[in-house]
Amino acid sequence: MKNIISLIIILVASSYSSLYAQKFDIEESNKTISDFKKEDPGIEKFFNNSYGYAVLYSVGKGGIGIGGASGKGTVYEKGTPKGDVRMTQVTVGLQLGGQKYAEIVFFEDKEHYDRFVSKDFEFAAQTSAVALSSGASADAKYREGVVVFTMAIGGLMYEASVGGQKFKVTLFGEEE
User: Fold this and answer.
1) What share of residues in the chain are helix, strand, coil (percent, to 5)?
2) Can you spell out the DSSP letters for 38-97?
3) Distance CA 112, CA 159 (A)
4) Where do the domains of the chain lie?
5) Listed residue (36, 157, 52) closest to 115, CA to CA
6) Which of 35, 42, 57, 127 could link 28 by a cystine bridge, Cβ 3.0 to 4.6 Å?
7) Distance of alpha carbon 118 from alpha carbon 110, whole angstroms
8) What per-residue confidence (pLDDT) applies to 17?
9) d(Cα 12, Cα 62) in Å, to the nearest integer?
10) Cα dihedral value 105, 49, 80, 89, nearest 10
């Protein structure tokens, strides 16, 4: 139990500190896009048809009863990198462990994309993500203009919790 608690603390702390320690890396976001396409080639239709998307290439998550996550990445408009994105999450419920994953949020149209980049944006607790595996994208559909895919990178998390994700976008050329 002590090792699990240590792992969770290290995972969340390293994710949080790396989130603020450096400028975000577009190359990492592009590599993540490539990894998602390799895992499920059908996801290509979302890259081709979405107005924009946010690629979170590094999300660390951990919890014991109360959990948290933080991540960083790049926001794209019509395939072109436009800014940095940060995500934070707090969850409450039955949960134990630590996990690292990547996440891509696709925006169906300009309206939903603009809402995401224009202010702090938050997903409700009931927003669900599609866990990426071969063929997972075939049945995925936009819900309220958004579809979310996640891909596990490492760790183990047992979870039956609720919480929302909050995003902050800084477009290139803007001051933080």
Assistant:
1) 30, 50, 20
2) HH-GGGHHHHHH-SEEEEEEEEEEEEEEEEEEEEEEEEEETTEEEEEEEEEEEEEEEEEE
3) 29
4) 2-171
5) 52
6) 57
7) 12
8) 43
9) 6
10) 0
| Whether residue 11 has pLDDT greater than 60 | no
Look at the pTM and tell me if it is higher than 0.70. Answer: yes
Average pLDDT, the chain: 82
What is the arithmetic mean of pLDDT over 2-15?
48
10 vs 65 pLDDT, higher one: 65
Site of tokens 């996801």: 43
Q: Are 96 and 62 in contact (CB under 8 A)?
A: no
Q: What would the pLDDT profile of 109-140 be if each residue is shown by its tens digit?
A: 999 999 999 977 887 644 567 777 766 777 78
149, two tokens: 């895919």
Largest CA-CA distance found in the chain, in angstroms, rounded: 47
Are 63 and 97 a contacting pair, CB within 8 Å? Answer: yes
End-to-end CA gap in the chain: 39
